[in-house]
Amino acid sequence: MGRILIAAIIIGITYLLGYAFNRVVIRAVGKRSRSAAYEIGRVGSIIIWVVGIVSILPVLGASDVVVAVVILLVGAFLIIATRDFTNNWFAGQMIKTLAPFRVGDWIKTSDGYYGRVTRVEGLFTILVTPNNETVVIPNNKLTSDLILDRTTSGSLKVPIDLELSPDVEFGELTAAVSKITKDLSQYLAESEQRNSEPEIHVLSKTSDHVNMRVFLRIENPAKEEEVASEFRKRFSLLGPERQSTRITDRGDIEP
Hints:
Blueprint (H helix, E strand, L loop, with lengths): L1 H28 L4 H26 L4 H18 L1 H16 L7 E4 L4 E7 L3 E5 L5 E5 H6 L2 E3 L1 E2 L2 E10 L5 H14 L6 H5 L4 E7 L4 E9 L5 H15 L3 E5 L9
Antiparallel strand pairs: 1-2, 1-5, 2-3, 3-4, 6-7, 7-9, 7-10, 8-9
Helix pairs in contact: 1-2, 2-3, 6-8
């Protein structure tokens, strides 16, 4: 009877410790990251209950062998149960320390998720897509997969590839692009509006054609397709003679 009473007392103390631990974690961590507070509280409670149960076994007369086996089994369970938490937490610390991307950047994952980073929490990173949808991505995935950061100095580069006749002079092309850029100034980032020279790169040149790429910087990625389409229309009317114009798919380019 005495052993059962002691076991009941241990269970009661274990419950109180688990409850108190959760309350402390919520107050200390919850204001910064509710998801991290929840996971830490869950893992901590499991560990507290495991210690409590293991402490009861000798009281109830279990042999040292039984206690050792239980400890091994419980240890294996804890490793499996906390694996995702541990991986995501360390990945979150890596993201915050190395800063491969920052809050405000527009990134695209290898799975095709594309959006603006609004929060980097202990376990998850939050994206908001151009369609105003929220995407929650585990931090471990962001450190193990290929991530495309399409933001440069707070704005987004829109690449437009042009295929022109080799007879077109670069000065004529620059003047045409500058004129279109000014006409589209309401879509562009402030840095682009202040820049008098458009960003143009020669990709390749043959006897038949010249491949060039024009970069425009915009503030709102939701307007990317609209800006690219409008540029094509204006270039067809104002731009120098060329063979064809095409827009690079944003999933295949590098900013």
